[in-house]
């Protein structure tokens, strides 16, 4: 017999767990009053155990009955259970949503790495349209791209960087262009928007791989390989009458929808056309400084910037129909037509159709979405000096005699008194005379060669060598933006300080063949 004795409380607890009879029976067996080895009445033991089970069940039922009778307790228990269930469901939902969020973030990141789905409020509607016209692209010998990732790889940039270059905001702290003003020969100012290096590289890629593959109309001579101001002027040699016209605000007239439509017409998808159009256009902006931070606020519609390497090629392609119409009218009336950028030239030996050619030209220009400059219509007869893109064409293509005479006088002054006593162009005079001599040689090889040799002798002098080296060794020297323009730009509202932000590295060099209102060498 064991000497172990339970306390009163332990006995009560044991009875509650079983029943009084079951406890007595267990104690009798434990203490030896009920010999378990001998035969014992089975029925009594079974009855006792069944009785205990019924009592336990009854106790539970009575507990539930008491709970249901106590309404407040019942509601509390129900709320407690409901809160426990809700908490469990909440945790489950939280984990599920967390997993879904991570999956969406991963999918979005993967999508951003291979595609572009948003580029601003007004420029994202067609980004989901990725189907291109492969047959049309192949017919024009243009590269095709399956998706944006392939396009970005071809441009040697990431999709994120391509998105950065194209993204459009009404108000931004970032500008991809350096803006400054150049004085016009006829007065006023011209806004030049020079792309910064990252955008300029993308534009040059687009120019070399897409735009340069397009076959321009034969009447277009500006920014076309194997053509120049010389080839443009030669068409109008020895004519009785020469008419020059100018398209007003040529680049700003070509807006974003027109550029996007051009790329779409080439066969590119809506998505790719949007990206190409955003890369090659810019809006007019106001510069606003708030709390020391410079903001660029968009003022109007996007258009072709004057200063981007892609702008001339785009306008040449967009002007093909206009060139065809002009050429058709010119041939019908016995005239010769050519175009260099925004300069239109007509010439003929029969002067009887002057009014008709001018009237039809005005109609065609208006139909094509351009505006003829009312103050730049020039009618030049044989008896006076006839000019086409700055070159005299009365007898043969040549540089104006008066200009050559002034240039020779300038060289003489430099040879006798030094370069400080002479004036030529708007920039560093030694660079200006070098550029003009090369220009003359391009137009008139014999005269130009003599002038180039003379300029080389001037530059070979020791004092001029030192001045040349000092000028171009100076880090603050801006080869294409000079002190005169910089001083003017500082006084202009919303102008960019040309002495800062690396303008020399971001400007596109002046094309010696480019003709604008002032002669190209004046920019050197």
Automatic annotation (TrEMBL):
<feature type="domain" description="Reverse transcriptase">
    <location>
        <begin position="163"/>
        <end position="393"/>
    </location>
</feature>
<dbReference type="InterPro" id="IPR000123">
    <property type="entry name" value="Reverse_transcriptase_msDNA"/>
</dbReference>
<comment type="similarity">
    <text>Belongs to the bacterial reverse transcriptase family.</text>
</comment>
<keyword id="KW-0548">Nucleotidyltransferase</keyword>
<keyword id="KW-0695">RNA-directed DNA polymerase</keyword>
<dbReference type="GO" id="GO:0051607">
    <property type="term" value="P:defense response to virus"/>
</dbReference>
<dbReference type="GO" id="GO:0003723">
    <property type="term" value="F:RNA binding"/>
</dbReference>
<keyword id="KW-0175">Coiled coil</keyword>
<feature type="coiled-coil region">
    <location>
        <begin position="44"/>
        <end position="111"/>
    </location>
</feature>
<dbReference type="InterPro" id="IPR051083">
    <property type="entry name" value="GrpII_Intron_Splice-Mob/Def"/>
</dbReference>
<protein>
    <recommendedName>
        <fullName>RNA-directed DNA polymerase</fullName>
        <ecNumber>2.7.7.49</ecNumber>
    </recommendedName>
</protein>
<keyword id="KW-0051">Antiviral defense</keyword>
<keyword id="KW-0460">Magnesium</keyword>
<dbReference type="InterPro" id="IPR000477">
    <property type="entry name" value="RT_dom"/>
</dbReference>
<dbReference type="GO" id="GO:0046872">
    <property type="term" value="F:metal ion binding"/>
</dbReference>
<dbReference type="Pfam" id="PF00078">
    <property type="entry name" value="RVT_1"/>
</dbReference>
<keyword id="KW-0808">Transferase</keyword>
<dbReference type="GO" id="GO:0003964">
    <property type="term" value="F:RNA-directed DNA polymerase activity"/>
</dbReference>
<keyword id="KW-0479">Metal-binding</keyword>
<dbReference type="InterPro" id="IPR043128">
    <property type="entry name" value="Rev_trsase/Diguanyl_cyclase"/>
</dbReference>
<dbReference type="InterPro" id="IPR043502">
    <property type="entry name" value="DNA/RNA_pol_sf"/>
</dbReference>
<feature type="region of interest" description="Disordered">
    <location>
        <begin position="502"/>
        <end position="524"/>
    </location>
</feature>
């Amino acid at each position: 017999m064991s000497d172990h004795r339970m306390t009163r409380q332990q006995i009560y607890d044991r009875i509650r767990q079983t029943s009084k009879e079951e406890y007595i029976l267990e104690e009798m067996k434990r203490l030896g009053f009920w010999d378990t080895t001998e035969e014992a009445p089975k029925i009594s033991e079974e009855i006792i155990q069944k009785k205990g089970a019924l009592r336990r069940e009854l106790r539970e039922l009575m507990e539930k009955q008491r709970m249901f009778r106590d309404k407040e307790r019942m509601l509390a228990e129900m709320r407690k259970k409901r809160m426990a269930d809700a908490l469990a469901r909440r945790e489950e939902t939280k984990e599920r949503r967390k997993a879904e969020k991570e999956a969406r973030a991963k999918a979005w990141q993967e999508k951003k790495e291979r595609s572009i789905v948003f580029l601003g409020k007004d420029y994202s509607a067609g980004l989901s349209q990725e189907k291109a016209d492969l047959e049309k692209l192949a017919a024009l010998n243009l590269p095709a791209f399956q998706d944006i990732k392939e396009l970005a790889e071809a441009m040697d940039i990431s999709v994120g960087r391509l998105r950065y270059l194209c993204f459009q905001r009404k108000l931004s702290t970032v500008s991809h262009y350096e803006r400054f003003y150049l004085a016009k020969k006829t007065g006023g100012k011209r806004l030049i928007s020079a792309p910064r290096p990252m955008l300029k590289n993308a534009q040059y890629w687009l120019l070399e791989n897409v735009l340069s593959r397009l076959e321009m109309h034969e009447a277009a001579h500006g920014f076309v390989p194997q053509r120049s101001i010389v080839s443009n002027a030669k068409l109008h040699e020895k004519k009785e009458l020469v008419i020059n016209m100018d398209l007003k605000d040529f680049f700003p007239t070509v807006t974003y929808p027109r550029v996007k439509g051009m790329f779409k017409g080439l066969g590119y998808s809506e998505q790719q056309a949007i990206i190409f159009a955003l890369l090659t256009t810019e809006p007019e902006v106001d510069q606003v400084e708030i709390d020391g931070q410079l903001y660029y606020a968009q003022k109007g519609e996007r258009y072709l910037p004057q200063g981007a390497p892609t702008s001339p090629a785009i306008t040449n392609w967009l002007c093909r129909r206009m060139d065809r119409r002009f050429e058709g009218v010119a041939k019908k009336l016995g005239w010769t037509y050519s175009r260099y950028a925004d300069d239109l030239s007509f010439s003929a030996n029969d002067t009887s159709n002057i009014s008709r050619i001018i009237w039809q030209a005005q109609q065609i220009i208006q139909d094509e979405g351009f505006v003829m400059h009312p103050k730049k219509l020039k009618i030049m007869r044989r008896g006076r000096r006839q000019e086409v893109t700055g070159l005299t064409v009365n007898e043969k293509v040549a540089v104006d005699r008066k200009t050559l005479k002034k240039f020779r006088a300038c060289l003489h002054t430099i040879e006798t008194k030094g370069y400080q006593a002479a004036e030529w162009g708007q920039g560093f005079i030694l660079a200006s005379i070098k550029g003009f001599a090369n220009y003359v040689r391009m137009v008139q090889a014999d005269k130009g060669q003599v002038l180039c040799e003379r300029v080389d002798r001037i530059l070979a002098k020791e004092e001029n060598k030192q001045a040349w080296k000092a000028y171009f060794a100076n880090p603050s020297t801006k080869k294409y933006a000079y002190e005169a323009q910089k001083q003017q730009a500082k006084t202009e509202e919303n102008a960019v300080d040309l002495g800062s932000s690396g303008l020399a590295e971001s400007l596109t060099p002046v094309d010696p063949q480019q003709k604008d209102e002032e002669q190209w060498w004046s920019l050197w």
